[in-house]
TrEMBL record:
Protein's name in the database: DNA-binding protein
Biased composition (Basic and acidic residues): 1-15
Residue numbers spanned by region Disordered: 1-52
Record-linked InterPro entries: YceD (IPR003772)
A UniProt-annotated Pfam family: YceD
Positions with biased composition (Polar residues): 36-48
Length: 230
């Protein structure tokens, strides 16, 4: 993923050298212009944007469909060596109720903090164990322990923040593991699979059968004792 963003950055730089450097990188729909706060420590920029969901978030059962709109709210705060983004992502997550398998479509809110350093070289230098862009093999064991901010690239000499990797990482991590269509979902009948939410009084006759067997048995026993008694 990092390699991808690096090559993306390089291609933007090449593009920019010929075109003045303020062209929106058209190869990325996730580029967000931050030029007004970039390299201006102390400045903040409000973000209210919508991006298409990147590919590969979840699967057919729980996930975000590629291209579905993710709303991003928050702000970029400029510090001496980069931009700090804090905010929320609001994504349309599709899921399945884990009890009754009913499809659920719901907006999910996720809190986000990320760092976009000015110096691309510091991308790796600043990464702490647990950062999602660190070499996977190296840090797999401790991955997830450290919830510190993650590091993402700026492109075009700090003119744009690229949200693609940040969106993907955040959404993948934020996907619900357990989803219920409602807190008191009754689930499916273990015997016939009918959705018990649609038929709360549903039951099977086997229960009654058992009673009738008992009743028969009781009658039989009664008969037996009366016979013995004589
Ligand atoms: Zn359900
Ligand atoms: Zn049933």
């Amino acid at each position: 993923m990092q390699k991808e963003s690096e090559s993306l950055m390089r291609s933007h730089q090449e593009q920019d050298s010929g075109q003045g450097g303020r062209i929106r990188p058209d190869s990325s729909p996730w580029a967000y212009a931050v030029g007004q706060v970039s390299s201006r420590p102390g400045q903040s920029q409000t973000v209210d944007a919508q991006f298409p969901a990147p590919s590969g978030i979840g699967d057919a059962i729980v996930g975000v469909k590629e291209g579905d709109i993710v709303t991003v709210n928050g702000s970029f705060d400029s510090i001496s060596d980069g931009l700090v983004f804090t905010g929320t992502f609001d994504a349309p997550v599709h899921a399945e109720c884990t009890r009754c398998l009913k499809p659920i479509d719901r907006g999910w809110n996720m809190d986000v903090t990320a760092f976009f350093p000015y110096d691309a070289a510091s991308l790796s230098a600043r990464q702490r164990p647990g950062g999602r862009q660190t070499a996977k093999d190296e840090f797999d064991i401790i991955d997830g322990e450290d919830e510190s901010e993650d590091v993402y690239p700026l492109s075009s000499d700090g003119e744009y923040a690229d949200f693609e990797a940040l969106l993907r990482d955040t959404l993948v991590e934020g996907l619900p593991l357990q989803t219920l269509c409602r807190p008191d979902c009754l689930g499916l009948c273990p015997q016939c699979g009918i959705n018990l939410n649609d038929a709360p009084n549903h039951h099977h006759e086997t229960v009654d059968d058992r009673f009738s067997v008992l009743a028969e048995l009781k009658d039989k026993l009664k008969e037996d004792t009366t016979t013995d008694g004589r």
